Batch of 2 targets.
Target 1
Amino acid sequence: MARDGFKMVLLGPPGAGKGTQAAMLTKAYNLLHVSTGDMLRAAIKDGSDVGKEAQNYMNKGELVPDSIVTQAVIERLGKPDASGGVILDGYPRTRAQAESLDESLKNNNNALDVVLYFKTSDETAIQRLSGRRVCTECGKNYHVSNIPPQKEGICDTCQIDLIQRDDDQPETVKNRLVVYKNSTKDLISYYKEKSLLREVDGNLSAEELFSNIGALFNAEGLISDDSKE
Ligand code: AP5
């Protein structure tokens, strides 16, 4: 169980498995999953002004401007259901975002507890993104061979067709990996300096990685598994 106000960041390249681990961790440790990618895709689906602006960047694999993303995250963290433990997935992605987040948390007498850095090879990321399929209804992620649905192409829960994300096309993936490398170098050193960064092996299977993260939580006394309370 996480203490109230617990905040963890998942940092890693596209396809590192951040969303997959966030779903597993949320369930096991009773945390709230805040994904900027999911928030932006929801805004696109709603046809809002923010969604229309974000889509231009996302389709090219570029980062959405810091101001848009930071405002959305800070608003989300101010909602009552965010007062328990929170996983931030895909935010911050730049040093400017990290500084804005720190500032906002500080104003609320809070701070980050840990940043999990999913170190992952380009080969792994590309293999995973090319085979990723998602359910537009419940948002669940599958992979055609690594984590397949029970019925090919159909969501296990919603029983509707799975789709491929627009930004999982090969050319966009290539650019997302370049953008990731350029924008996160600074971020990794920022969190290293603050002694918040913990590296995990993103190339492992989802189960192995989940178990390693649990061991890290225990070793550092960060949070405990609800089922063992
Ligand atoms: P976002 O949706 O956050 O994408 P991302 O960070 O590029 O990460 P992904 O969702 O692609 O990968 P993931 O690490 O979550 O992997 P997953 O678990 O799905 O952002 C999209 C866009 O929004 C950005 O490009 C940007 O434009 C914009 N944006 C978002 N946040 C922003 C920010 N803060 N600032 C500015 N712009 C922002 O797994 C991938 C696949 O692998 C799946 O098929 C899964 O089933 C499979 N898999 C997962 N884990 C494993 C495993 N361990 N072994 C085998 N297969 C696995």
Note: The helical segments are 18-29, 36-46, 49-58, 66-77, 95-107, 122-131, 170-193, 206-220.
Target 2
Amino acid sequence: MLKHLRTTATAAALLVSGTLLIGAGTAAAHPGKPGHGKPDPGTPLRVAADRAHVKFGTAVNTTALADDATYRRITAQQFSSVTAENVMKWETLQPQRGVYDFTEADRLVAFARAHGQSVRGHTLLWHNQLPAWLTEGLADGSIDAAELRGILRDHITTVVRHFKGKLYQWDVVNEVFEEDGSYRNSIWLEKLGPGYIADAFRWAREADPNVKLFFNDYNVEGVNAKSTAYYGLAKQLKARGVRVDGFGIQGHLSTQYGFPGDVGANLKRFADLGLQTAFTEVDVRVPLPADPAKLATQADYYRGLLSACLGSRSCTSFTVWGFADQYSWVPGVFDGEGAACLYDESYRTKPAFDALRAELRQGRH
Ligand code: G3I
């Protein structure tokens, strides 16, 4: 399914015998006015981001977090927000019907807490990474539509309650539109009709009135049929009293396609509707092998998205979908493309890393 992703602490960061300690205190959150002062050359992204009043996040591979000390150190040092790359999805959280397993997800939340990081929840409803008991039960007819609705309600309620007070945003529905703006054909649409989207937001809201509830999708950076479908739905839901708080733009880009147009205008129209926005899964793949020219273009693309975020008051966070090439999902899905992250496989930073930090230093504009 992803083949068509086309467009596409602060001073208290101490490295003590391999363990990075970051001051979790909020006193470090806004040390100066945006754009003022000159951070040291080695300033972590999260410190520059604090000064620009935006969260700077990464998706986290929890296996790497457990096994790879360098990965762990960089996760703590550079990022002020984390998203579970996989372990808050259905197949992990509800591996058997009615049996929930929060072990891995709770470990990530504990790590984030220990390092003064915020957590984005991903995701309460998707058509991928569903547990076998669910897909098989639907396929053989042992689970019918009415039951499916109950299962969805139970999952959202249980999961949102479990993390209540610990997350700042949830991707409530992920990738629910096709490229042409029609509803994505999924088990959810097929069995429940499009009303499942409003239901998902209502149930999540009931379970935690404070966490911000988001749409999330790819190929919605600019103004196009798909992003317009979200815009229309957000308006419609608002008119019906169903509150949606935010629009998450994944930002999976490839340098072989042009940089998406109208990103600023797109953010603005959602902001005008009263929604927050966020870049939630940014990476920029290049045709392999990478070379300096391709990495320079990659840096421009990363910087372009961050600049749009910093140009909109509505934009709360900028999250990269992993930071180290050896753990990236990209090469497994896109033949001949890769090198999509801010660090290479030996943990050397790329020009994109410097470009993002330079952009953060400019602050909001
Ligand atoms: O958990 C199994 C493990 O038990 C097994 O041994 C191993 C063998 O391949 O597979 C493991 O599952 C993998 C899973 O990631 C956890 O590591 C799947 O094969 C693999 O397909 C899965 O890929 C994830 C993908 O979503 C699934 O569609 C990627 O890591 C993850 O980066 C990616 O993330 C999505 C976002 O959630 C939504 N937006 C697009 C984005 C990129 O595809």
Note: The chain is about 40% helix and 15% strand.
